[in-house]
Design brief:
By secondary structure, this protein is of the alpha+beta class. The chain has two domains: 189 residues, no CATH class; 180 residues, Immunoglobulins (Immunoglobulin-like, Sandwich), CATH 2.60.40. The structure holds heme C (5 copies).
C-alpha cells in the first residue's frame, strides 16, 4: 500500500472531526502574494539573475537520487515535449505573436525570464539553462509567485531553500528552511492556468483547495513527492526525503531517460486512483431490454479526475456484453475506431457513416469553449466545460442493454480506461506519428456472467 493510501484511509476516519477547523486551515493555506514588482530587465539585473542559477548536473554529485528521479519527470520534459512546441507555434501564429511568453513562462521559466524566447525562437539556440525546462533551481530559487501565472521573481542570493529545518552545511551552497516547500502553494503558480483572457483554464490547485484534502493538510507532495528514508545529500545525515519523479498521467512521447519506469509508475498510480463498482442483475429475461449501473468513485485523487490538461485527457468506460464463448458481441460502448478515436463527434469514421456513433459513451474529459462551442485550443477559451469527478465524489452511469434472444449465459465486462492524448488531437496538430506512442491504461475492470432465462 502506498504511503498516501494509508494517509487517505486515516483521513477518511478523521473527516468528521475536521470540518470545524476547515476555516482556520484554509485561511492558513492561502497563497503568498507577490510582494514586489517582477525582476526588472536591465542588463545588470539579468546578469545577476543568470549568475544565480546552476544546471541540474551541478547538483548531481551531491544529490544523485534527486537528480536521477527529476531527470525522468515531466518537469524535465516540459521543454522537450514536441506537443508543447507545436501548440506554442500554433498559438503564436494564430495570435500574431500576441501569446508571447504565455506558454513559456511555465514550461521554461528561465528562458522567458532571461528574455531568450522571443518570436520565432529556436530551442537549439537557447542557453543550456533555458533548455532545461522546470529544473532544480526553478523550484529551489523561487522568491515570489502568482497562482496561475507562474513564478514572478527568483532569488539571486544562490541560497537553496527547501523544507529541511536543520540542513547540514556544504561547500557548494547555503541552505535555508522555507515553510512554503511543504505546502501545495509552491505548486500553485503553474498547476492552475489563467489564460490571457483571464479564464482559469486549468484548475488542479483550486480543485485541491476545494477538497477535504486541503482541510486535512494532505498537500500535493504527500501523493506526488512521496517520502522515503534516505539521504538528502551524499554526505548528509539519514532523513525522510522526497521522491522527485512527480508521477502523474503523462509519459514522454519521444525517447527520454527512464521512459519505461515512467510508464510503470503511471500505470501504478492510475490503478490506485478510483474505485469502480457495477450493479447488474444475476439473471435477465430473454428478449427484454435490461439495465446495468456503473459507479466510478474518486476516492484517492487529491483533485478532480482527470485534472489539469483536461482537454487532452480521456478517461472512459468500456462496456462489453459477449456470448459466453466470446464469439458474439451483443453490446459495446467505449470502443475505438480504426484511427484509435472514441466513436463520438471527433471520430472521422462516425462522421463518414462508416461506424455507428457510441450513443451511451461515458467519457470524462474537459472541453475548451468559445461562445458556447467547443474549440481545439484551450488558451482561446472563454469558458471550460468539465465532465470530471471531484475528490471524494462519484459518478453513476446507467446503460440500457439490448435483449438477448436465446437462453444460456452471457459475459459482461466493464473497464475504466485512461489516455493522455486522443489521436484526433495529435493528427490535427500535424503529429500523427506520436499516436502510437500514447498508451491506453487500464485503471480498473470487473467481469461477471449473467444468466438469460
Ligand atoms: C517542481 C519543483 C521542484 C523541482 C523541479 C525540484 N525540486 Fe527539490 N524539492 C521540491 C519540494 C517542494 C521539496 C520539499 C518537499 C516537501 O517538503 O514536502 C523539495 C526537496 C528537495 C530537497 C530536500 C530533501 C528532500 O527530498 O526533502 C533537496 C535536496 C532537493 N529538493 C533537491 C533537488 C534537486 C537536486 C533537484 C533537481 C535535480 C530538484 N530538487 C528539483 C521541489 C522541486
Ligand atoms: C557539494 C555538495 C552539494 C552540491 C553540489 C549541491 N548540494 Fe544541495 N545540499 C547539500 C547538502 C550536504 C545539503 C544538506 C542535506 C541535509 O542536511 O540532509 C543540501 C541541501 C539542499 C537543499 C535543502 C535545503 C533545505 O534547507 O531544505 C536543497 C533544496 C538543495 N540542497 C538543492 C541543491 C541544488 C538545486 C543544487 C544544484 C544547483 C545543489 N543543492 C547542489 C550538498 C550539495
Ligand atoms: C514552474 C511551473 C511549475 C511548478 C512550480 C510545478 N510544476 Fe508540476 N508541472 C509543470 C508543467 C509545465 C508540467 C507538464 C510538463 C509536460 O507534461 O510537458 C508539470 C507536470 C507535473 C506533473 C505530471 C503531470 C502529468 O500529467 O503527468 C505532476 C504530478 C506535477 N507537475 C506535480 C507538481 C507538484 C507536486 C509541484 C509542487 C511541489 C509542482 N508540480 C510544481 C509546471 C510546474
Ligand atoms: C491524495 C493524493 C493526491 C493529492 C493530495 C494530489 N494528487 Fe495529483 N494525482 C493523484 C492521482 C492518484 C493522480 C492520477 C489520476 C488523475 O489524473 O487525477 C493525480 C494526477 C495529477 C496530475 C495529472 C492530472 C491529469 O489528469 O492530467 C497533476 C498535474 C497533479 N496530479 C498535480 C497535483 C497537484 C498540483 C496537487 C496539489 C494541489 C495534487 N496533484 C494533489 C493524487 C493526488
Ligand atoms: C500557468 C502555467 C502554464 C501555462 C501558462 C501553460 N502551461 Fe502547459 N502545462 C502546465 C502544467 C502544470 C501542465 C501539466 C498538467 C497536467 O498534466 O494535467 C502542463 C501541460 C502541458 C502539456 C503536456 C500535457 C498535455 O497533455 O497537454 C502541453 C503540451 C502543454 N502544457 C502546452 C502548453 C501550451 C501550448 C501553453 C500555451 C498556450 C501552455 N502549455 C501554457 C502549466 C502551464
Amino acid at each position: 500500500m502506498h504511503g498516501y493510501e494509508k494517509q487517505v484511509l486515516r483521513l477518511k476516519k478523521r473527516i468528521t472531526i475536521t470540518l470545524g477547523i476547515l476555516f482556520v486551515v484554509l485561511t492558513a493555506c492561502r497563497d503568498t502574494q507577490p510582494s514586489g514588482p517582477p525582476t526588472d530587465n536591465s542588463p545588470d539585473s539579468l546578469a545577476l539573475l543568470r549568475g544565480a542559477f546552476s544546471m541540474p548536473e551541478n547538483c548531481q554529485p551531491c544529490h544523485p537520487n534527486h537528480f536521477s528521479e527529476w531527470q525522468t519527470s515531466m518537469h524535465a520534459y516540459a521543454f522537450e515535449d514536441p506537443v508543447f512546441f507545436r501548440l506554442n507555434e500554433i498559438g503564436q501564429e494564430r495570435s500574431g505573436n500576441e501569446l508571447d511568453q504565455f506558454c513559456i513562462k511555465c514550461h521554461s521559466p528561465l528562458g522567458s525570464m532571461f528574455g531568450e524566447t522571443g518570436p520565432g525562437f529556436d530551442r537549439a539556440d537557447l542557453s543550456e539553462l533555458a533548455q532545461k525546462g522546470i529544473q532544480c533551481d526553478v523550484c529551489h530559487l523561487i522568491k515570489n509567485f502568482d497562482r496561475g501565472h507562474s513564478i514572478t521573481e527568483f532569488r539571486t542570493d544562490r541560497i537553496r531553500r527547501g523544507s529541511i529545518a536543520d540542513p547540514q552545511a556544504n561547500s557548494y551552497h547555503d541552505s535555508e528552511y522555507d515553510a512554503r516547500y511543504s505546502t501545495s502553494a509552491i505548486c500553485s503558480p503553474c498547476h492552475d492556468i489563467i489564460s490571457p483572457l483571464g479564464v482559469r483554464v486549468e484548475a488542479t490547485s483550486t480543485e485541491w483547495d476545494a477538497s477535504l484534502y486541503s482541510a486535512m493538510g494532505l498537500e500535493c507532495q504527500a501523493c506526488h513527492m512521496p517520502l522515503y528514508s534516505g539521504k538528502a545529500a551524499t554526505d548528509g545525515p539519514q532523513r525522510e526525503v522526497h521522491r522527485h519523479t512527480f508521477t502523474g498521467v503523462d509519459i514522454p512521447l519521444t525517447d527520454f531517460p527512464g521512459k519505461a519506469q515512467t510508464i510503470e509508475a503511471v500505470t501504478n498510480l492510475l490503478q490506485n486512483s478510483v474505485s469502480l463498482s457495477l450493479q447488474a442483475p444475476a439473471q435477465i429475461n430473454a428478449g427484454e431490454n435490461w439495465q446495468i449501473a456503473v459507479t466510478v468513485g474518486n476516492d484517492r485523487t487529491g483533485h478532480n479526475i482527470p485534472s489539469g490538461s483536461t482537454f487532452e485527457r480521456q478517461m472512459w468506460l468500456e462496456v462489453r456484453l459477449l456470448s459466453a464463448d466470446g464469439a458474439q458481441v451483443y453490446f459495446e460502448s467505449g470502443y475505438l475506431d480504426d484511427n484509435g478515436d472514441l466513436a463520438d463527434h471527433h471520430s472521422e469514421q462516425v462522421a463518414n457513416g462508416d461506424l455507428p456513433e457510441d450513443l451511451q459513451l461515458k467519457l470524462y474529459t474537459g472541453k475548451a469553449m468559445l461562445n458556447g462551442n467547443e474549440i481545439p485550443f484551450f488558451w482561446e477559451a472563454d469558458a471550460v466545460e468539465l465532465n470530471t469527478i471531484p475528490a471524494f465524489s462519484s459518478d453513476h452511469t446507467v446503460y440500457t442493454l439490448p435483449g438477448i434472444q436465446t437462453g444460456g449465459w452471457v459475459a459482461l465486462s466493464v473497464s475504466l480506461k485512461f489516455r493522455a492524448f486522443p489521436p484526433h488531437v495529435l493528427r490535427a496538430i500535424g503529429l500523427p506519428e506520436l499516436v502510437r506512442e500514447v498508451p491506453v491504461f487500464l485503471m480498473e475492470s470487473i467481469t461477471t456472467n449473467i444468466e438469460v432465462l
